[in-house]
């Protein structure tokens, strides 16, 4: 089920209420506090960011989608328990402890947002893009998802429902986009090349071959 936004109601002592509203400022404030307390090494943080930004990126998620497109048993396992399914592929770690996969169909298009901050499945998609963390996207994706999708170049038939999933610190989502026409017969490597980061957030479609 999509997250009810009431799930994000927190008391005044919740950690999120003590941080600046802008995601970038939150990150910097947390990093500064952790460094001052000697809990993190700035060099280690830089190495982690480089890993997710430049070496992992969305390739892991694209491999998951390509496998779901070609292996019915894996697709079923992914939709049943995505955390276990992707872990079997070596895709696990911080920011990916609990993954839920949602599949686009001819009648439903899924879209992911984090209305509170910028929760995102790092092991599958890398570091979230700047627009995903913006206040505008976080507010408008819930209020007017079709308009937001249109701005990304995605125009859906009127009969296709748009389902918005609210990512949280506890649950992160992977959208399995529809396999494009003309992709029959392609191997997994070629199929993975058709899967974009935006399509796995739900703000894009897989590329036509």
Average predicted local confidence, pLDDT: 86
Could you state the order of secondary-structure elements as H and E?
HHHHHEEHHHHEEHH
**CATH architecture field of the domain at 57-201:** Alpha-Beta Complex
Number of strands: 4
Helix content: 40-55%
Write the layout of secondary structure elements.
Blueprint: H1 23-36, H2 42-56, H3 59-70, H4 72-80, H5 82-87, E1 99-103, E2 108-113, H6 122-125, H7 130-133, H8 135-143, H9 145-151, E3 161-166, E4 172-176, H10 188-192, H11 197-201
Parallel strand pairs: 1-4, 2-3
How would you characterize the overall build of this protein?
With 209 residues, the chain is mainly α. The protein has a domain at 57-201: Nitrile Hydratase, Chain A, CATH 3.90.330. Helices cover 43% and strands 11% of the residues. The chain has 11 helices and 4 strands, in the order H-H-H-H-H-E-E-H-H-H-H-E-E-H-H. It is globular, with a radius of gyration of 18 Å. The two termini are 32 Å apart.
Please name the defining characteristics of this protein:
209 residues, mainly alpha, two-stranded parallel ribbon, two-stranded parallel sheet, 11 helices, disordered N terminus
């Amino acid at each position: 089920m999509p997250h009810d936004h009431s799930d994000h109601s927190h008391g005044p002592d919740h950690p999120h209420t003590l941080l600046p509203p802008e995601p970038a400022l939150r990150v910097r404030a947390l990093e500064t506090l952790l460094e001052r307390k000697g809990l993190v090494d700035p060099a280690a943080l830089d190495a982690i960011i480089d890993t997710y930004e430049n070496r992992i990126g969305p390739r892991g998620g694209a491999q998951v989608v390509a496998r779901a497109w070609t292996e019915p048993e894996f697709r079923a396992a992914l939709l049943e328990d995505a955390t276990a399914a992707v872990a079997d592929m070596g895709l696990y770690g911080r920011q990916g402890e609990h993954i839920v996969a949602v599949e686009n169909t001819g009648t439903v298009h899924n879209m992911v947002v984090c209305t509170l901050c910028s929760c995102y499945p790092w092991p599958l998609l890398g570091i979230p893009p700047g627009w995903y963390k913006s206040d505008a996207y976080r507010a408008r994706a819930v209020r007017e998802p079709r308009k937001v999708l249109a701005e990304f170049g995605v125009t859906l038939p009127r009969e296709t429902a748009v389902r918005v999933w609210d990512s949280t610190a506890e649950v992160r989502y992977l959208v399995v986009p529809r396999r494009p026409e003309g992709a029959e017969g392609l191997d997994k490597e070629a199929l993975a090349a058709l899967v974009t980061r935006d399509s796995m957030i739900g703000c894009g479609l897989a590329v036509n071959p």
